[in-house]
Design a protein that fits this description.
Blueprint (H helix, E strand, L loop, with lengths): L1 E8 L5 E9 L2 E6 L5 E7 L5 E3 L7 H6 L7 E2 L5 E2 L3 E4 L2 E4 L8 E2 L12 E5 L2 E8 L10 E10 L2 E10 L3 E2 L3 E2 L17 E4 L3 E3 L12 E2 L11 E2 L9 H6 L3 E5 L8 E7 L5 E7 L3 E5 L6 E3 L2 E3 L6 E5 L8 H4 L5 E2 L5 E11 L1
Antiparallel strand pairs: 1-2, 2-3, 3-4, 4-5, 6-16, 7-10, 8-9, 11-12, 12-13, 13-14, 14-29, 15-28, 17-20, 17-22, 18-19, 18-21, 21-24, 22-23, 23-29, 24-27, 25-26
């Protein structure tokens, strides 16, 4: 069942609506502002409701604070080095908003847009037209994101198509803490990632073409471990990122839908199983969090993100594009799925 109510008004007078998808004793709240997951409540092992997603109680919180909490990200999730990309010999200079690089769509990304929303059965279809030249990307890009929440599984289905050759790399930037939003840390959440390889970065967090085997390093989550166990290890990648903020290449391969990660909270017993057909995931340990939100103060590392996507900067690195290129021809359909399935143990 889907219900809707007014959430607030933006500083430029646009109405923000909150859509609640109820699934028995669980529910998800989605905003038309940024296509944002504002809340995701599931029961813990005792049956008590736990909100496992960080967010804000009002529109002002989303407008004033950074971090992309819960938002849809585009046109290009993650980073493009120096904000430069070339398509068929034409170079495009994108807005640089992160250490001299392009991050999460630029100056005003999809996270700041008011999306059109249609209730379709027990789900939501969100639509947005990114016009030719927006953030200096070529092509009129029609984007559609469908959210469903059935049997405690949140499904996000992404579809996009452009009338010009362009770059597309969509994701969602939900911050999870299976202990509950606003609790002191998420670093005791136990993580498994089905990946043998990650992409090292330069000092500004741009992957430039190298691959690194995770075995024997702090980045190895093939055996489940607490997120914080090795986060302060003496590793140049962790120093540059101030903790985990790196892309893991998934074993499933681009286009093959499979389970790629699992997270468990020893405190609440909540389990989150993660599935996708995207080729990679950015594991971010909330190293930059320091703001107040619903549920309390969000301190450093009090949440984590698992952002399914193509490898960052693949528009400039052919070795990365082989795992799934973000360059799409005019009329070529971009379509991927990510799901988060909740249970208790």
């Amino acid at each position: 069942m889907v219900t809707v109510k007014e959430f607030g008004v933006t500083k430029d007078g646009k109405t923000v609506l909150a859509y609640t998808m109820q699934d028995g004793d669980s529910k998800v709240v989605i905003l038309n502002y940024g296509g944002t997951i504002q809340s995701l409540i599931v029961p813990d092992r005792s049956g008590a409701p736990v909100d496992v997603v960080l967010g804000y109680d009002d529109v002002e919180g989303y407008e004033k604070n950074g971090g992309f909490l819960g938002a849809l990200i585009g046109r290009f999730g993650n980073r493009i080095g120096l904000g430069k990309m070339s398509i068929d010999g034409t170079e495009y200079q994108l807005f640089c908003n992160d250490r001299g690089n392009h991050l999460h769509g630029g100056e005003v990304g999809f996270d700041k847009k008011i999306w059109d929303v249609e209730i379709v059965g027990d789900g939501l279809k969100l639509s947005y037209l990114s016009v030719d030249g927006e953030e200096n990307y070529p092509g009129n890009l029609k984007v559609e994101v469908v959210y469903t929440f059935v049997n405690k599984e949140l499904k996000i289905e992404y579809t996009a198509v452009s009338d010009k050759k362009t770059a597309i790399n969509l994701t969602n930037h939900a911050y999870f803490n299976l202990n509950g939003a606003g609790t002191d840390t998420a670093m005791d959440n136990v993580l498994w990632i089905d990946s043998d390889v990650m992409t090292p970065t330069n000092a500004t967090m741009i992957p430039e073409g190298a691959f690194r085997e995770v075995k024997g390093t702090a980045f190895d989550f093939n055996t489940p471990k607490a997120m914080g166990k090795d986060i302060d290890a003496d590793d140049i990648e962790l120093r540059q990122g101030n903790g985990y903020d790196h892309c893991h290449i998934l074993k499933n391969g681009c286009g093959n839908f499979a389970k790629y990660a699992e997270v468990v909270s020893p405190r609440t017993g909540i389990v989150m199983e993660c599935f996708t057909d995207m080729p990679a995931v950015q594991f971010y340990a909330g190293n930059g969090l320091n703001q107040d939100g619903k549920g309390g103060h969000y301190a450093k590392r009090s949440a984590f993100c698992l952002e399914t996507q193509a490898i960052p900067n693949n528009v400039n690195v052919p070795a990365y594009a082989k795992y799934g290129s973000s360059i799409y021809d005019a009329g070529q359909v971009y379509h991927f799925v990510a799901t988060y399935r909740f249970s208790v143990k």
